[in-house]
Amino acid sequence: MKRIIVLALAALVAGASFNTALADKKKKKKAKEEQQQEVVEVKQPVQLVTSSDSLSYAAGITMTNGLMPFLQQQLKVDTAYMADFVRGLNEALTGKETPAQQAYRAGFQIADQVKSGMLPRMKQEFTDTPDSIIEPILFRGFADAIAKDESVMNMRKAERLFKKKQESNHEAMVAAKNKVGREFLAENAKKEGVITTPSGLQYKVLVQGSGQVPQATDKVKVNYEGRLIDGTVFDASSKHGNDPISFRADQVIRGWTEALTMMPVGSKWQLYIPQELGYGERQAGNIPPYSVLIFDVELVGIEK
Questions:
Q1: Closest listed residue to residue 302, CA positions, set 243, 207, 217, 203
Q2: Distance, CA of 182 to CA of 176 (rounded, Å)
Q3: Alpha-carbon radius of gyration of the chain
Q4: How wide is the angle at C-alpha 41 spanned by C-alphas 44 and 22, nearest 5°?
């Protein structure tokens, strides 16, 4: 009797498993048929009747030249999902997008702008400051504002706090950079051969020339190399060709103008320029704001 019950249960389980497998198979078959039906509906037979038809079809093909590397490398599209890409492409090109799909796609576009443009600029603004930008929290604040969720902070409060943080962090950054610059100049002033002028400019004569001293309105020819106090070279005349660079002595930063109008032609000086006589709070190429600058300057001649 027990054996009969066991066999009956085994048969029941086997039957249930078979039915489940059969149901799954039917479900997959139906899904595949529906997918094929979608493809059939989207991908109608091509009829190239006129010369313009052939031109248009060929143009469409040629426009995809180089697209795959762009999709993979720039847009990070997994080629395993090309059917989804094509479906979205067709919906967008034929104007069949629903308002919900358009809004969803716009979300991706704005997210890309946030991550590639707005976020890096925001993080740069708070570099070397007491505070920093934490990406997930920034993203949450961005999304909450779009959704009009003011449970944590409203726009007015956020703008006040952000402006206050901008000002306080900016002041802290300036103080820190000025402290580093002042300490460098203070130590440098003690070195042998370094001369400090009333403006704060420091210079050391490497080669003393015997030629004419330029006026501020004279056009001079110089060779130079510019460095930050950490040794980073940010510019040099050699980067612009083999010839000396020409400019009017009063059309450069104040530290240069002061030095040039004291240098006889043929001289080579090393300049140590405080930020007040350089670019100050401005970012100039690879020169960060509030930077003390070091230049090796050779005055080659004066152009009359």
A1: 217
A2: 10
A3: 35
A4: 130
CA-to-CA separations, 83 to 68, 91, 219, in angstroms, rounded: 13, 12, 66
* Structure tokens belonging to residue 195: 């001369």
Grouped pLDDT means (10 residues each) for the chain, 304 residues: 43 46 54 47 78 90 91 90 88 83 88 92 86 91 92 94 91 85 95 96 96 95 95 93 93 96 96 95 87 96 89
For residue 293, give every residue at least 6 positions away whose Cβ sits within 8 Å of its Cβ, in sequence order, or none: 226, 227, 228, 253, 255, 271, 272, 273, 275, 278, 279, 287
Could you report the per-residue pLDDT of 114-162, keeping only the tens digit for each?
999 999 999 988 887 888 899 999 999 999 999 999 999 999 999 999 9
Which two tokens mark 174?
């300036």
Show the tokens assigned to 10: 């085994």
Query: Which position has the token pair 């002061």?
Result: 258
Is 234:228 a contact under the CB 8 Å cutoff?
Answer: yes
DSSP 135-148: HHHHHHHHHHHHTT
- Token pair belonging to 69: 């590397």
Backbone phi and psi for residue 294, each to the nearest 5 degrees, phi listed first: -120, 125
